[in-house]
Design a protein that fits this description.
Elements (H helix, E strand, L loop, with lengths): L6 H14 L8 H26 L3 H25 L5 H12 L3 H13 L8 H9 L1 H17 L13 H10 L1 H23 L6 H21 L9 H23 L4 H12 L5 H9 L5 H32 L2
């Protein structure tokens, strides 16, 4: 209950309510885009500043390696399950969506930990960046293989699927991803002096900007949920249970490798999250056969609210109970 009293989460719930009541509350797309870029830039800088103090060691390498492993295991498992429930192209798209990560969920978890003075490593921002692309590449490779087996040719009005090289380039140079990685590098290079120079940009402003952005996300989530009408009930089961299963997988592997509690909590958050920006943007061009309303409705309409309201407090509590403070 205490987590629901966080102002950022309350603004998300306010946005959800506005969407369900069909209020005309709306954040202009340009403002929403600015807020997203600001949050990624601030997150990257904070991670870089922290890395400049802690440096790179075996602990950092272990956490980043596990993040990359999860980014490979989760989409593979997702596809094996979902292809039994829905079409193969839709299954590949859902696997990409749930194998990738949500920056908003991760940023909210960072704020949750900071608000409770719980320690975590700045390198986890790099872990988030590492986990974004493998699932996309995995899904595109699957789609290419399925097309060759089925001899599928796009119709004259269809969008031509993007080639593998194009997907690789777009996933690695996407503006948000590029900004995040660049901000980490700048924070790492400038260290404590940079941190002092960038206050209050990365400090006091962060919470308010996050709350404003989550208000917009709440409205968007409410608008995307109706897109799932008429779909098999199994997608609702998956959208609600997959975050918990993926978080549990991260918990088991992370605890077995001795990952510290704060980093373990963030790995659980990343594993449990689902992309609703990067993956849909790429799949729109590279996998036109998939139903975008399906994977976007699942990630934004169900999984994002679940993680923000219930998941983050649960993952943090379990991680610190299991791995200690």
């Amino acid at each position: 209950m205490q987590a629901l009293l966080d102002p950022a989460i309350l603004f998300f719930l306010l946005g959800l309510t506005a969407g369900f009541l069909k209020s005309n509350l709306e954040i202009p797309p340009q403002v929403s885009r600015f807020l997203a870029l600001y949050l990624l830039m601030a997150l990257g800088l904070k991670g870089g500043f922290a890395l400049s103090q802690s440096g790179f060691g075996s602990e950092v390498g272990l956490a980043l390696g596990l993040a990359l492993l999860l980014a490979v295991i989760i989409p593979a498992l997702s596809f094996l399950l979902m292809r039994r429930l829905i079409g193969q192209f839709d299954a590949a798209a859902v696997a990409a969506t749930y194998g990738s990560v949500s920056a908003v969920t991760f940023i909210t978890a960072i704020q949750y930990l900071e608000g409770r003075n719980l320690a975590f490593g700045g390198h986890m921002a790099a872990a988030m960046a590492l986990m974004e692309s493998p699932a996309i590449i995995f899904a595109i490779a699957l789609a290419s293989k399925m097309r060759s087996k089925l001899a599928v040719q796009p119709g004259p009005q269809a969008v031509a699927p993007m080639g593998f090289k194009g997907v690789l380039h777009e996933s690695l140079t996407d503006g948000a991803q590029f900004l995040l990685l660049g901000s980490i590098a700048i924070g790492l290079l400038t260290g404590q002096e940079g941190k002092l120079a960038m206050e209050p940009f990365t400090g006091n402003l962060f919470k308010g900007m996050l709350a404003f952005f989550l208000l917009d996300m709440g409205v968007s989530a409410a608008k995307n949920l109706p897109k799932l009408r008429g779909q098999t009930p199994w997608i609702y089961v998956y959208a609600l249970s997959a975050p918990l299963v993926h978080a549990a997988l991260a918990l088991v592997l992370g605890f077995g490798l001795g990952i510290k509690a704060g980093d373990l909590a963030l790995l659980m958050v990343l594993a449990a999250s689902a992309s609703y920006i990067a993956v849909p943007a790429v799949l729109k061009h590279s996998m036109p056969e998939a139903n975008s309303a399906l994977y976007l409705g699942m990630s934004l309409g169900i999984t994002l609210p679940l993680n923000l309201v219930i998941g983050i407090p649960l993952y943090v509590y379990v991680a610190f109970r299991v791995a200690g403070a």
